Amino acid sequence: MRRRTFIAGLGSAAAWPVVAQTQQPERMRRIGMLTGLASDDQEAQTRNATLLRALQELGWTVGGNLRIDYRWGPGTAELYRRHAADLVALGADVILTSGTSTIGPVLQTTSKVPIVFVNVNDPVGGGFVESLARPGGNATGFASAEYAVAGKWVQLLKEIAPDVKRVAVIRNPSVASGSGQFGAIQAVAPFLGMEASPIDTREAGEIERGIMALAPYSKAGLIVPASGASLVHRDLIIALAARLKLPAVYFQRVFVTSGGLISYGDHANEQYRRAASYVDRILKGEKPADLPVQAPTKFEIAVNVKTAKALGLTIPETLLAIADKVIQ
User: Fold this and answer.
1) Are residues 184 and 58 in the same domain?
2) Which residues face 94 on adjacent strands?
3) DSSP-derived 3-state class of residue 9
4) Are 318 and 180 members of one domain?
């Protein structure tokens, strides 16, 4: 009888390590987040809130099983490389980057830590991935619109301001997508009776000088393609367009809600929501090389009626009818 009791006790003891193992707390995972926007930028905070909600829906709670280390912009490539090195040193399990200007420096810093990017123009042409279907390295994510969208910007400018003959295009010549987007605009503009010229910019002073150079032209317009610098300096661009009474087309809605005339493009917040799913899959063991780069799933038009009136423009009813967001 005592022998049976002793053997039963051994069985219980053998189970102790298993019980102890199951009671171990889950290891906290770390995300490094690098963005070209400043920490006090309202758009940056809105995007971050979208990401956090999406991660929470997938079972990740900041302070519980997840920690996020932030590095904010704007800055130079050298600053972004230092930020990336900091995030790697902190033990990031995955780094989330936003914008074309940040992904390059991060890839130069690490070839091992998985990277998920959002709002990147032409990731293949930029050399960030081998192909959209098979990224091939340690980075994948969500691309901005193809260059063909640039034709839509020209079309909208012509529709809302038919008298425009000269269109200036803000671009960043230091990234491949800057020239790519301008080239697409330049190819379409003559068919709509316009001449396109670039404003090469990287910082606020260049932007101001480039736009103010349009002052002598009475039939000028402005197109602002996807660019981190344009997003950072959006208030300046919008104010200058208003001062010179320039009809302007922008690449995202946030410009229009801030007082710009009209925009056409993908929804940045949606990219952050979708990015959470890739972060989740990588944290659970999948490799970036196996996750295809995804294109935007929805494009939207936003128009600001108040701004149009200030510019002396009448928005066509046909355009108002198809707009996703109309600001009165």
Assistant:
1) no
2) 31
3) helix
4) yes
